[in-house]
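so i finally got all the pieces together for this one. its two components total, 888 residues if u count the protein bits. some of the lines might not be protein, just check the labels. i wanna see the whole assembly predicted at once instead of chain by chain like last time, that was a mess tbh
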Amino acid sequence: MDPKSSLETLETTSWWMRGVLVNQKPSLLFTLVIATQLVEDSVVKLDRICREANVKLVFVRSYGLAGFVRVSVKEHTIIDSKPDHFLDDLRLNNPWPELKSFVETIDLNVSDAVAHKHIPYVVILVKMADEWTQSHSGNLPSTREEKKAFKDLVKSKMISMDEDNYKEAIEAAFKVFAPRGISSEIQQISNDTCAEPSSNSSDFWVMVAALKEFVSNEGDGEAPLEGSIPDMTSSTEHYINLQKIYLAKAESDFLVMEERVKNILKKIGRDPNSISKPTIKSFCKNARKLKVCRYRMVEDEFSNPSVTEIQKRLADEDYSGAMGFYILLRAVDRFTANYNKFPGQFDGGMDEDISRLKTTALSLLTDLGCNGSVLPDDLINEMCRFGASELHVVAAFLGGIASQEAIKLVTKQFVPMLGTYIFNGIDHKSQLLTL
Amino acid sequence: MADLEAPQSKTRDLDKLLLRAGNLVGPDFYPGAELRDDIRDYVRILVVGAGGLGCELLKDLALSGFRNLDVIDMDRIEVTNLNRQFLFRQILLLEDVGKPKAEVAAKRVMERVSGVEIVPHFSRIEDKELDFYNDFNIIALGLDSIEARRYINGVACGFLEYDEDDTPRRETIKPMVDGGTEGFKGHARVIVPGVTPCFECTIWLFPPQVKFPLCTLAETPRNAAHCIEYAHLIKWHEVHGGKSFDPDEPEHMKWVYDEAIKRAELFGIPGVTYSLTQGVVKNIIPAIASTNAIISAACALETLKIVSGCSKTLANYLTYNGGEGLHTKVTEFVRDQDCLVCGPGILIELDTSITLQKFIDMLEEHPKLLLSKASVKHGKDSLYMQAPPVLEEMHRPNLSKPLYDLMGRVQKDTVHVFGTGLKNEEKHSSLTKLRVVFKGADGVTDMDTAIGA
């Protein structure tokens, strides 16, 4: 089929589907739906349908210089969250036996000056941490003075000022002070009710259940080792040997996890091979970076938003514009229900529309429980000036954001936005709010 | 909602912003059909770059009421562009790969939006006369390098003139809107020379490029990238002497790849692939369509607002990050009062007897400039040009003449100097503005000279 007619088919299909979705309950074939320019009633209806059918939903609205994007999914779990910055998994504060043995084979006090400055900082810090704990009843540095003393200890081993490996060790010393074990976020995920495996559990939660077991047993409080190490000043030989040790532990942790996953699958009546090796491996590598996103239904947000959040934002000098637009975007839909047109949609009767919109917006605020909050008159005027216009550049901006969220949701990589993104095209002081 | 009463017009939506008065608007906003028509008929916008951002910018501007656009880009279309530079196609009989980006982009947008005129320029930005840039109301940048941005910034700020009391003269202000993207991150900013910080004022925003220490490359490589850069930066010169490495030459790239493999094998380092080799050598940063769409839309919106005044503008820097959730932030940066590029210019006090040659020599020594091989321009007149040889020879006689005379014996004026500057130990070509004031030149003498001439 040539591109032109396939595009036409897509367009006609989507109109048809729109009718189908809003009026009936079909068996949906979609992974994700992007709904643009729907009014409040339709938003609520579509949200119910998609939530029940477990279809991911992204809402976009473009209105003059304002607009919003909202993701609505019951639960979205992410293994490959790909955070921008994440601490490496070196376990300097908790070295395992093989790492300790390797470190022992290297003598920091080697006489050759070149060799001295090509010992990787991992080795330096594991040794120094060990020396410290020996003389501090088995404890790592915790107070500010202790941390400084530790860094001085490292520095004292330098034999000249140009030893980059020692400089790196001093800069990386904070990794020794870092708390051991899993983060509170991963702890929370492990303690989630979904982490109790059942025949309905998704692969993600089965693996979380295995993770929980691992942490309590073989992991001794730690997640499976990630396995990679960052670049650092080192001789090629030391570096490659170090790499091998980390990879070996990551591999052995993975094998334990794999075993546990299979056992859990058996217990809940599923084929023990139904979760693939690569999936489990990826889970292990990303175990410290897992994310679970859950979204309120739009009608819950609309009927029961966080009042404190709304009041706080409306009172904020700088960012009240975005919050104001959020309220007004809802108010204009109420307006149309009463007056059968958007405020300012036509050129005549502007003053009347402005005062009507103001009344509608204030009554909405009262309904939400935000009595006493005000919307700036200028903003209400602007909303009427917009007259429900759709500007290409605003639609393009919001469309770009919506498409990006859609890609994140479908690929299950990176983290989708948690909340409603309210666009303020006047000064770009937009806000992402969880309401 | 169907518009049953109002006549259907293509500009129905834009009209709401351009024809209606408002309160949260720009300082010189005169709503009306005339504003809309003036934007359509008279405003000229230059889009610099016809790539990921440029394609989006052209589309956005064409669909926002602008009819007179120019686009400049020196590149040709490549296959890797096609995932986001949506104006370019490679389907059925349409083979755009290899054609100039500017020309195809212009053609496609004109096909799609009736009435818009887009003049493409398949050339380097440095090859255009300064006057070319002066013809536009706003310059929208969709560039991918710091150097290119610096250049345009220098040009636009070069038009800026100041009053006696150091306030910028409005009619010489040439606003720019600049967008940049890198994966999920991006920025959009508004630059109003003399009012908001220019690109140079905030050059510290850009982190230094990652460079591997030479000893790592030469002696202790640890990863694939080290092996590749060894082949690219060290081995190439050892073997090829003076021949410069061309990343777009497949044979050169293959040579680097083969050498990188050899080195990796020698050290037992895994991971060298042809694709990684390209990525490391060309410093490729992955680009996605959605970020480009978002940032260009923000830039085009600001362009519309600045030109029309239909709303307040971004003040003045928007950052965007969409990888982990969604974060946008507005920061209001302030101008560097001493900025070499958008400031009134470094004050240089000279004796009326100083020759042009002596002046050029002084620039090299000047602590804030360290400018070597300078060409000098006074208003529209080139006083001296280092290149090309024909023009150098033509202007050479000026070198022995007093600068004061060459500048028409005015007590003070602005000159522009262009040469190789040294900043943070890095050389780069720079265009700088200088305020030249002549000591010992008083009004009476000037008058006499004027009458005498």
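The longest strand of chain B covers residues 426-439.
Residues 289-308 of chain B form the longest helix (20 residues).
anyway lmk what u think
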